[in-house]
Write a structure and sequence with these properties.
248 residues, alpha/beta, TIM Barrel, 39% helix, binds 2-phosphoglycolic acid, Triosephosphate_isomerase_AS
Length: 248
């Protein structure tokens, strides 16, 4: 466990403006943040430059999505090269809102993962089952299939964080219990051991997302295979600091 640095990402989604994000950034810049936690804030693409210019350098910046090629006639899209040009180091790919609101396929997500990694961006790769899949008992099948497509597109796992985000827990206030999160994380690590390597299974951070709050983060963080969080709603509030410090 000590091998894996605790990782906390804030996913601002399509929220905020320069005024409110500026206030959040000042709160984060002046907060006491546990040194042993890697912190990344995912800003809307139009605010990547703003976030990078204003956030303290100890906090990294991520984009929330990108396209699968470097440039061209793809109106409305952004490339990993542009994200890097704005000083951001990470991108979230395969988020459930991209999968289920915008209809992104596993195949497209895989292509994006490959291109982002080739361009030296770290990738927060998201997977997770829907409520009906959990109720039908197919959680493992679903998350293994999603992970498989990601794995086929990764050469070096050093720049990948895997985010397990059950769709039924995202933005709903229904957090997975620490036992439910641990169970899936442990199985995902075993999947990595069987299908990739021992080294990757031991070193890849598997983070949990879905209604993480200042109140529930410590118990979730105490689970052996929970290596951090991807936080939506609570990342826009001062309690994000408590989540960053969940293992402090
Ligand atoms: P939530 O979002 O914390 O608001 O549930 C998590 C996410 O979508 O990454």
């Amino acid at each position: 466990m000590a091998l894996r640095k605790f990782f906390v990402g804030g996913n601002w989604k399509m929220n905020g403006n320069k005024e409110s994000l500026g206030e959040l950034i000042s709160t984060l810049n002046t907060a006491s943040l546990h040194d042993e936690t890697e912190v990344v804030c995912a800003a809307p693409s139009i605010y990547l430059d703003f976030a990078r210019s204003n956030l303290d350098p100890r906090i990294s910046v991520a984009a929330q999505n990108c396209y699968k090629v470097a440039k061209g006639a793809f109106t409305g899209e952004i490339s990993p090269a542009m994200i890097r040009d704005c000083g951001a180091d990470w991108v979230i790919l395969g988020h459930s809102e991209r999968r289920h609101v915008f209809g992104e396929s596993d195949e497209l997500i895989g292509q994006k993962v490959a291109h982002a990694l080739e361009n030296d961006l770290g990738v927060i790769a998201c997977i997770g089952e829907k409520l009906e899949e959990r109720e039908a008992g197919t959680t493992e099948e679903v998350v293994y299939a999603q992970t498989q497509v990601i794995a086929e597109n990764v050469k070096d796992w050093g720049n990948v964080v895997l985010a397990y985000e059950p769709v039924w827990a995202i933005g709903t206030g229904k957090t997975a219990t620490p036992e439910q999160a641990q169970e899936v994380h442990e199985k995902l690590r075993a999947w990595l051991r069987a299908n990739v390597s021992d080294d990757v299974a031991d070193s890849v951070r598997i983070i949990y997302g879905g209604s993480v709050t200042g109140a529930n983060c410590r118990e979730l963080a105490s689970q052996g295979d929970v290596d951090g969080f991807l936080v939506g709603g609570a990342s826009l509030k001062p309690e994000f600091v408590d989540i960053i410090n969940a293992r402090a």
